[in-house]
Structures are given as structure tokens and as C-alpha cells.
Write a structure and sequence with these properties.
heterodimer; A: alpha/beta; 4-stranded antiparallel sheet; 10 helices; 28% helix; B: mainly alpha; MetI-like fold
């Protein structure tokens, strides 16, 4: 895959939110939401990003579509640097990267009909308007499993799963190469989650879409992703092809995440390897490896020296001093 | 569910809108058709029948100059309603514009909101009296003075609503699908501000009617030759103990009108609350 050009290239992306105390005080501290994240997404593939809440995965997703301005680092879309693009400069590029929101309720304007919500991107780029708009929108409704007659309905008349289908149809309307999906199924019932994920996989096969799929649930990511990145406290700690990551996790944090995935067979229930402690504050982070206070294998070196992310095997990247290339 | 059945259903659930609207409509019809409904010329002085009580020829009695109180109250409603509606219209339009600009532009926000704070710091009645003092007494001046007083309330409301709407995911979604500023404003922000602004408009209408009466009562409002509920009561105040109807008649009209407008406002507030609408 690395022979082709990535559709999205993220390098050393950083986002810090200032913490102000008092009315006129200058920013004293920063929330290090995203702390030097690098990855690429290739056409037609799905990169899953998992991590606990607060690990910076959503901020990363929002920076890619410029809902949040990066503090530093670079974002390249089809090779073009969009890191410092203003709203006007970003406008033509929005056709190529679309976004699916986590909350299917607040992400649809309650006072617009479903047809107009899905048709809005087409109007924005002058693809269709007026009477022709409905004809352009109807196929998207059918494609995501809704009936074209539902175009005149308002968001409150749809169920959560149907609303997320509307969100997918809206993201699909401009025929983008990449869709960033920020926990698209975490607000849905488990049975509906599977339907929506299967729909997204069908659409990927049909349109050759690339997904950046954010989730806090490894089981969800395992199903849809080709590659998986694990984030902890603003950094990617491990990134590998799906099979590789699930079969032989190299980072102790990934191991405990995998242990936390529920096994449906009680006979196979393993002794759970539960992490002690809490995720440290992203304002005052531990020195060295951010994970060392909770790591069962931490050594003296881990407390002082932050591990670089390195390739221990073809395509398998780990940020851990203790991961050996031959294990 | 069609729109018509939704509307009747809503009215059944919020009867106060219907009751308020019905009372208000009745009062509007009465004042609009004042020349036919009044039994006398509201200005006609008849010294022979000064301070008479209720009778067949003077339904609500007469005042100190022998003018018919019913006719004067009916005509007086014209000023009150005109002021109420005009102020509600102007104050909401100007407030909406100011609020939208402050909600979108931080520099304009800092300036506009300090001006609004300044206006709000002065008690409404005093500010209106001061504005009346520098201009000639007329209904137009009264409308202007009360509008100045009410604009900051709408502006602050719209600003806060705009700021909260801008945080909504559907506005971010519109950004991502490439919606430009005007489409964002027109399609996503404005329609979602209209519900609270409509409710606020009814409260402003009620407040304006009261302030107008108060200004007229104090002699700082509508000129004395134009009958309005406020100055009818002001003139009747002197004779209150011997002929209480001079105050009661316009007072009841005023109270009923304000009550009707407030009922409508409360009902609309419950009806348009999106969290309730969403549960339908």
C-alpha cells in the first residue's frame, strides 16, 4: 500500500488548549489534547483510532476537517498542505473530506427536512438546486437504507439509527475520498451499531472510500478497520495492521485494552488484566513514558525518557522501550 | 401527521395561546372599529353630565368634563395597542440585528454589548421619561423611547441564543459540508433563534403597553388631547373617590390586554420549546 499516495497525511500534529485562571490572567497551563500524532490514510482503507475518552482522538478528527485549528504539525490532503488554510481556502477541499458526527441528534438541524439536510452540500457546491435537488438526493436515501419518501420528514421523526444514516448520506453527497467518522456508532444501540457499520463497509466497497474511524470500542474497530492506531493521552502508542495488532499487541496498554474486550463464551473467560489507577491529567502529564504510572512492566528508564514510536516489524509501530523487534 | 393536525394538537395542549389570542383579537377588533363601537365622540365635552355613573346613554359613566368614558376607553386602546405592537416589532427587529452581529463578531460584540449594558443600567421608566423630556410629546416619540428601552433585552437574548447555536453540532456539520456564512445564518442560526425571539416579542409588547400607560399617567407620554388608557386614568385620578369608574374602566382594559398578551407569550414559550417539540 505505501506505493500509492496517501489521501491524508498527518505529521506531528499538536493541539494545546490554554487553561486560563482568573479574568485577565494569561494562559498558565495547557491541556495537551493531541501531542505529536503522525499517521497516513491511503485510498480505500480504514484506519481505526481507539482510546479512552480524553485521549485526543476526537480532537485529532476535528483538526482534520478544520473544526479545530492545529497548534502545530502538518495536515496534507492529497499531498496539499491544508494546515494553515483559512475557511475560504479550505472551502474547495471540503468536497474531498467529509465528517460523520458522534451524536445523531444534535448534528441534524431540527428545523430542516431530511431531504434538505442531505441536499445542502449539493447546493453549497452548485451541483444541484431547486427541483433538481430532490432527484439528486433521492438515490442517496435509497443507498443508505432510507425511503426517498422520507425526504420531507423532519429529524425528530427518525430513530437514532436512521438519523445516523442521514448523517452518512450527507457525508456521501459530495463524493469525498475520505470520511472522518468520530465515534459514529457509540450513541446507537448495539443491534443498530452493526447495521450502520455494515452499511459503512458496503459504501466503502462501492465508492472506494477511505475512512478514519474513531471509536473507544476495540470490537467495533476490529470489524471495520484495516489498520488500527491506539492512542493514550494525546499520543499514538501503537499502530499496526488489524490482524497483527490483535494477534500480538506490543504495547502494554494495547494488551490491557484487548483484555477488556468482552468474550461471548463464559468458558473462555480469561483472568482479566485490569489496569490500576486512572488516566493522568492531560494538563500535568507524567514525565517519561506517559503510561509508566500504570504500566505493569515499567522500568527506571520509562520514568525519565519518553519512548519514540518505532517500527518493530513491517507496518507495526510501537512507542515502548520494552518492545523488542523479534518478539 | 400533517401540519394542520399538529397545530390543533398543540393548541389543545397549550390552551393559553388560544385564550390569549382570542382576548387580544377581541380587544383589537373593538379598538379598530372604535368609531362604530363608541357611543359618543371621545373628545365631545358635555358639562351638563359631569361625573355621571353608569347609565343607558353613558355605559361607563362620564368624566370631569362630561366626556363618555366607554368611548374614550375604546379609542384609548388604539394608542396602547399601536404602541405595544410597534415597539414589539421595532425592538425585536433592531435587537435581532444587534444580537446577530454580536453573536458572530467579537469586536462588534465588545462594543455593542457595553452600549446595551449602559442602556440597561438606567431604569427603563427613567430612561423613557428622559427621552420624552428632550423630544416633543407624541405617539411616535413614545414608541421611540420605549423601543430604546427594550432593544437591549432582545439583543442580549439573541446574542446568547446565537452563541449557543454556534456550538451545536449541526452548525459544525454545515461548515464541513461547505455552507458559507449567509447560508449558515439564514438556514441554521436564524430559524432557531425565532422561537425565543417570538416569545420575547410578546413580553415586550405587554411591557410596552404598560410603560406607555405609565408615561401617560405621569404626563410624560401621549399628549393629553389623544385619549390613552394611561392619561384617562391620570385625569380620573383626582376624582377617584367620587367616581371610581374613571380609573376602573381603562384599568380593566389595560389589565385584560396585558394579561392576554402574557398568556400568549407563556403558551408560545411552552409550545416552541424545542425539547418539548422534539418529544412529539
Amino acid at each position: 500500500m505505501p506505493e500509492t499516495m496517501p489521501i491524508l497525511e498527518v505529521a506531528n500534529l499538536v493541539k494545546q488548549f490554554p487553561v486560563r485562571k482568573g479574568l485577565f490572567a494569561r494562559a498558565e497551563d495547557h491541556v495537551h489534547a493531541v501531542d505529536g500524532v503522525s499517521f497516513s490514510v491511503y485510498p480505500g482503507e480504514t484506519l481505526g483510532i481507539v482510546g479512552e475518552s480524553g485521549c485526543g482522538k476526537s480532537t485529532t478528527a476535528r483538526m482534520i476537517v478544520k473544526l479545530v485549528e492545529p497548534t502545530s504539525g502538518t495536515l496534507r490532503l492529497d499531498g496539499e498542505d491544508i494546515t494553515r488554510h483559512t475557511a475560504a481556502e479550505m472551502w474547495p477541499h471540503r468536497r474531498r473530506v467529509q465528517f460523520i458526527f458522534q451524536d445523531p441528534y444534535s448534528s441534524l438541524n431540527p428545523r430542516m427536512s431530511a431531504g434538505r439536510i442531505v441536499g445542502e452540500p449539493l447546493e453549497n457546491y452548485g451541483i444541484a438546486s431547486g427541483a433538481a435537488l430532490a432527484d439528486r438526493v433521492a438515490p442517496f436515501f435509497s443507498r443508505v437504507g432510507l425511503r426517498p419518501e422520507q425526504m420531507k420528514n423532519y429529524p425528530h421523526e427518525f430513530s437514532g439509527g436512521q438519523r445516523q444514516r442521514l448523517g452518512i448520506a450527507r457525508a456521501l453527497a459530495l463524493n469525498p475520498g475520505l470520511i472522518v467518522a468520530d465515534e459514529p456508532v457509540s450513541a446507537l444501540d448495539v443491534s443498530v451499531q452493526a447495521q450502520v457499520i455494515n452499511l459503512m463497509m458496503d459504501l466503502q466497497a462501492e465508492y472506494g472510500l477511505a475512512y478514519l474511524f474513531i471509536a473507544h470500542d476495540l470490537a467495533v474497530v476490529q470489524h471495520i478497520s484495516h489498520r488500527v492506531a491506539v492512542m493514550y493521552l494525546g499520543r499514538i502508542v501503537e499502530m499496526a495492521p488489524k490482524r497483527d495488532l490483535f494477534a500480538s499487541p506490543q504495547h502494554p496498554y494495547t494488551e490491557t485494552l484487548l483484555d477488556a474486550v468482552p468474550v461471548p463464551d463464559p468458558a473462555l473467560r480469561r483472568a482479566k488484566n485490569v489496569l490500576p489507577g486512572e488516566v493522568p491529567s492531560p494538563i500535568h502529564r507524567p514525565a517519561g513514558c506517559h503510561f509508566h504510572p500504570r504500566c505493569p512492566h515499567a522500568e527506571a528508564r520509562c520514568r525519565v525518557e519518553a519512548p519514540e514510536i518505532r517500527e518493530v516489524r513491517a507496518g507495526h509501530f510501537v512507542a515502548c522501550h520494552l518492545a523488542s523487534p523479534d518478539s | 401527521m400533517t401540519i394542520a393536525t399538529t397545530a390543533t394538537d398543540l393548541l389543545r395542549r397549550h390552551p393559553s395561546v388560544l385564550i390569549g389570542a382570542a382576548i387580544l383579537c377581541a380587544i383589537m377588533v373593538i379598538t379598530a372599529f372604535a368609531p362604530w363601537i363608541a357611543t359618543h365622540d371621545p373628545m365631545a365635552i358635555d358639562p351638563m353630565v359631569r361625573l355621571r355613573g353608569f347609565s343607558a346613554s353613558h355605559w361607563l359613566g362620564t368624566d370631569a368634563l362630561g366626556r363618555d368614558v366607554w368611548s374614550r376607553a375604546v379609542y384609548g386602546g388604539r394608542v396602547s395597542l399601536a404602541v405595544g405592537l410597534a415597539v414589539a416589532l421595532f425592538a425585536t427587529s433592531i435587537g435581532l440585528a444587534v444580537g446577530l452581529v454580536s453573536g458572530f463578531n467579537r469586536v462588534a460584540d465588545a462594543i455593542l454589548m457595553r452600549v446595551m449594558d449602559g442602556l440597561m443600567a438606567i431604569p427603563a421608566i427613567l430612561l423613557a421619561i428622559a427621552l420624552m423630556a428632550v423630544a416633543r410629546a407624541s405617539v411616535t416619540t413614545v414608541i421611540f423611547a420605549i423601543t430604546v428601552v427594550e432593544v437591549p433585552r432582545v439583543a442580549r437574548l439573541v446574542r446568547s441564543v446565537v452563541l449557543s447555536i454556534r456550538e451545536q453540532a449541526y452548525v459544525e456539520a454545515a461548515t464541513v459540508v461547505g455552507s458559507r456564512f449567509w447560508r449558515m445564518l439564514w438556514r441554521h442560526v436564524l430559524p432557531n433563534t425565532l422561537a425565543p425571539v417570538t416569545v420575547q416579542a410578546t413580553y415586550i409588547c405587554a411591557a410596552a403597553i404598560l410603560i406607555e400607560s405609565l408615561l401617560s399617567f405621569l404626563g410624560a407620554g401621549t399628549p393629553p388631547e389623544v385619549p390613552s388608557w394611561g392619561n384617562i386614568m391620570a385625569e380620573g385620578r383626582t376624582y377617584f373617590q367620587i367616581s371610581p369608574w374613571l380609573i376602573l374602566a381603562p384599568g380593566l382594559f389595560l389589565a385584560t390586554t396585558v394579561l392576554a398578551v402574557n398568556l400568549m407569550g407563556d403558551g408560545l414559550r411552552d409550545m416552541l420549546d424545542p425539547s418539548i417539540a422534539r418529544r412529539m
